[in-house]
Amino acid sequence: MANSILPAGGTAIEVIDERQIDEAHRSITLNLGPQHPSTHGVFRVVIDLEGEVITAARPVMGYLHRGVEKLFENHRYPQLVPWTDRTDYLAAPSNNLGICLAIEKLCGVEVPERAEYFRVILAELSRIASHLVWLGTHCLDLGALSMVLYAFREREMILDLFEQFIGARLTTNIMEIGGFTRDIPEGWVEKCRDFIAILPDRMREYEDMLSANPIWLNRTKGIGVISPEDAVAYSLTGPLLRASGVAYDIRKARPYLVYDRLDWEVPIGENGDTYDRYLVRMEEMRQSRAMIEQCLDQMPASGPFLARESNYVMPPHLPSQYNAEDMQRHFVWTIKGPRPPKGEVYVSTEQPKGELGFYIISDGSPIPYRLHYRAPSFWNLQILPKLAQGAMLADMVALIGTIDIVLGDVDR
Amino acid sequence: MPEQQPRDTPGHTPGTASEGQRETPRPTQSEGNTAGTLPPQGAPRAEPAVVARIRGAFPDAIEGVTNFRGQLTIRIRNEAIRPVCLFLRDEPDLRFDMIADLCGVDMIKLREIPRFDVVYQLYSVPHNQTLRLKAALDEWGTIDSVTPVWPGANWPERETYDMFGIVFDGHPDLRRILLPDDWHEFPLRKEVPQEGDRHEADRWLQKQDVPVRLTE
Lengths: 412, 216
Hints:
The complex is a heterodimer. In chain A, 45% of the residues lie in helices and 14% in strands. Chain A contains 17 helices and ten strands. The termini of chain A are far apart. Chain B folds into two domains: 47-175, Beta Polymerase, domain 2 (2-Layer Sandwich); 179-216, no CATH class. Chain B is globular, with a radius of gyration of 19 Å. In chain B, the strands form two sheets. Chain B has a five-stranded mixed beta sheet. Classes of the chains: A alpha+beta, B alpha/beta. At the A-B interface, helix 2, helix 4, strand 8, strand 9 and strand 10 of A face strand 3 and helix 3 of B.
C-alpha cells in the first residue's frame, strides 16, 4: 500500500498511493466558521466534502440570538424602534421604517407628506449603504481586495448624512411613530445632493474594476444558479428573487409612502446566477439614487413633519419644557405609552435584503401581545444548502456572499 | 375569554384580499386578479371571493373570517390546513405560490383553549394578492407541516418549534434552530419571563391586566 523512499541523508517518508485510499476516508467533514471572515458574522456551515466537491452543507446558526421577539413583547410601542436597529445593523433606517409603518397601520396614523418623502430618502440611502457593504465584502471574499476601500468611502458619506440628521451612524433610531420629531438640519439637503451627484461616477469606477475583470467573471458567472420556480418556492425576496427574473418588488406591488409617485424601474436578471445578482444590486443603487433625486425635488420645503397629535403620536418636545400641562402630557404619554386598538396587522416593506415584515397582535394594552419579525436574511439563507450541493468548496464563500446575509438579522 | 374579534373599521371596503398599506388604499397593480375583486360601492357586505372558493372546495374547513384594516384573516380547522394550502397554491385563479411569513402565537392570555395559533401569510406572485391563514392547536397537539407545500416554510417551522414547542407533523427535520439543541424551555411561551425566575413569572402571569411597570 505505502512504499517508503529514502532520500539521501534523510529519514524515510511514507508515500500514500491515492488510489488505495478506501471509501471511508475519501470524504471529510469540514467546519466553516463560526469564526470565519467570509461568513460575515458568527455563522457556521458544516460541509461534507468529496474531494473538493460539496455533497452536503448544514448551516448552524443562533450564535447571535438575542431574543428580540421576547423583548418586543416586554416593551411599549415607542420603545420598539431602537431594537430594530440591532437586527440588520447595516440598514437600520429601513428597519425603523418597517416597524413605524406597522405601528402606524395598527393605530391608523396618517403621516404628513413631507415626512413620507423624507422617509423614502432615508430608506433609499440606507439601501445604497447596505449594497455598498455587500459589494465591498463580496469582492473581498472573492479576492478583489481593494474594492472594499472604494465601497466604504461612499458608505462613509451616507453615514455622515445620518449622523448630521440624528447624531448616530449605525444604530440610528431615526424615525418615530407619526414621522420625525426634529426637522432637517441646515445644509443637509445640499450635502445629500452633493452625494447623489458624485455617485454615478463612483459607480462607473466600481464597474471599471469588476465588469470586465476575468477573475471576477470566472468566479461569479454561472455560480449558484437559482431558477425562478425555486426562488418563489423557497420564499426568496429582494435582489435574490429579482435576479432570477421574478419582478416582485413590494415598492411596486403594494406601494407605500410615496413610491407610486416616483419614476423608477424594477431591475431584473435573466440567469439567476451570482453575476446577475451583482448586476441587479448595482442597478438598484442607480434606481435608489434616481428616487432620492426626485424626492429632493418634490419634497415640500416646509410643512408639518410629525403626524397630527393624537393618542398615538408623541406630544411635541419643545412646549413641554415651558408649560406645566404640556410637560404632564408629555410625561404621561412617555411613561404609559399609546394603547393601539385590538387587532392584528402584517405590514411588509422592501428592505435592502428582501421583504421585512412585522406581524403585530394588539390586545389593547401598551405592550404588543405578539410581534413577529420576518427577517429577510433568515428566509433567504434557506436556499444555501440547495445551492451548495454539488458546488466546489472555493465557491462556498461566493454563495454565502451573494445571498447577502447579516447575522444580526438571521439570529435576531 | 373568547378570541378577540377585531371590529371592522368603517373606512375600508369589505371583501378584498388585497393589502392596502393605508386606510384608503391607493391604486395598486391589481389588474387581472380574481381572488379578491372589489364589490361595487354600496353593495351589501358580501363574502370575499377567496373565502367562497375555499368554502366551495372544503365545506367545513373555515372556522371564521375577520377583516381588520383591510387585511383578511381566515381561520382554518387544524386538520384541514395542508389540503387548503395545497388548494390555494394550485388553483389557477388563486395561485398563492409563496409563503411570505409563518409564525406561532401563544394565545394563553386571550382564550382558554386551544393554546397556540400558527399564522401563515401567503402571497400570490401572479395575482399580487395577500392572504392570512390561521390554525389553532392544543399544547400537546400537532399540526400538519406545510413544508411539503412550500419548501420555504422549513426553517420558519423549525423556528416556531424552537420558540413555542409547536410540533409540525411531516416536517423533514424538526430540530431547534436558533437555540442550542439542549435548551431547557420554549422561550416565547408566555410563562417564560424575559428575565428572572419562573416562580416570579407565574405570579406575573396571574395578574390579568398587563401592568405598567415604572421600575424597569
